From TrEMBL:
InterPro entries: Fido, Fido-like_dom_sf, Fido_containing. The active site is at 276. GO terms for molecular function: ATP binding. It comes from Corallococcus coralloides (strain ATCC 25202 / DSM 2259 / NBRC 100086 / M2) (Myxococcus coralloides). ATP binds at residues 221-231, 280-287. Residues 187-338 form the Fido domain. This is Filamentation induced By CAMP protein Fic. PROSITE patterns: FIDO. Gene3D superfamilies: Fido-like domain. Keywords: ATP-binding, Nucleotide-binding. Pfam families: Fic.
Amino acid sequence: MRLPATPPDLHAFVQTVARSGAERLVALLEHKAVGPEIDGRYLHWDELRRHPAPEGMTHEEWWYRVKTARTTVSADLPLLDKTGQLFSFTRPDGLLSGLHRIDRQLGKGLELADPQLANSGVRDRYIVESLMEEAITSSQLEGASTTRKVAREMLEQGRPPRTKDERMIFNNFQAMELMRRNAHVPLTTSLLLELHETITRDTLDPGEEGRLRRGDGPITVQDRASGEILHVPPDASKLPGRLRQLCAFANGSDGSVFIHPVVRAIVIHFMLAYDHPFVDGNGRTARALFYWCMIREGYWIAEFLSISRIIQRAQMQYSRAFLFTETDRGDLTYFLLHQLDVIQRATDDLYAYLARKGQEARQVELLLKKDSGLNPRQRELLAHALHHPAARYDIQSHRRRHGVVYQTARQDLLDLEAAGFLERDQVGRAYFFSPVASLERRLKKHKP
């Protein structure tokens, strides 16, 4: 991808204008028609320079006025770029409205959309589904080429990975579960290294798994297609101190002023990718930390979202938001706005998924008597079977999908077979269950 144009040096700009008299600077500052956003968009210099400037202004003067307006509503963060400059972010209307929307939708809103989420069993099922989706797409973003179908079968059946690509996905699933279990534990460098070791197990040289990169030479982030250098991370010798700063920020123990929890989670995501502390797996580690922070801050519904699926659809926008921040003196607003949009899209996907699952469940309810004697796990399987008559189910995948013990999963399937809804085949020592051809008719006639 093309690197964005670097914004003009504002210090040099001010000096140039001042030499011609202070009147012009005063006129620019008094120009009330210019604010932090342009037509509701938070434009980078690379974008702004392509728009017509306001009458009587050059593009450089316009940019100076925009940056001045942004400074009045900006806040510094206790995190440094590699030159020692503080990262900061602005609070434009787009950011505030995005945070408000997330607070509303990721609070009680989802429980109202699907009251079944109050049921711990249903919640666990949705969480497993989301963990699988995020594990697959996050790994695919880093180059894993296994198909979603094969990857899901591996995770559902619990079989060992057969290729390096499958291993990446398997590891990512384990890593997401690790951070979910540690959601209420403070972030430490030790936990971060454990996360990375889990993500990269058996995919890197053993000496690189769960270990910070060493100063064996400069490391760069390059465009996969062109090879152009996009980012040069901080020197390896700085990493221990930088990660201690990041952990303090993540835990809210850095003494900084109040920072919205979602802003904190997104900043952690950015900083891990910026520091690039490992030879590989930095993107997956950064996204896992985002989930950890969201859950830790009380946004438990984040467990049901897959941000990587949204990023995968538009990877260039993800990279551009990162580069806009880096080239505009560490202004994180670009990345924050992009990630808020990603979270919103992931939330929309979740609502659509819940609506679809709810419709399937209602279809089964219409076919069954009210008191059918079937538990929610069995009802969901039958809803799936109605739409997928060629599907095959086994005990291990049913167990993992619903987070139950082997005996419970086994009894679920055997009871459905006994009721005439499924038929059983044996392959080696394993049993597989398939929907009977007359499933819909049998559901209508079912008596508990």
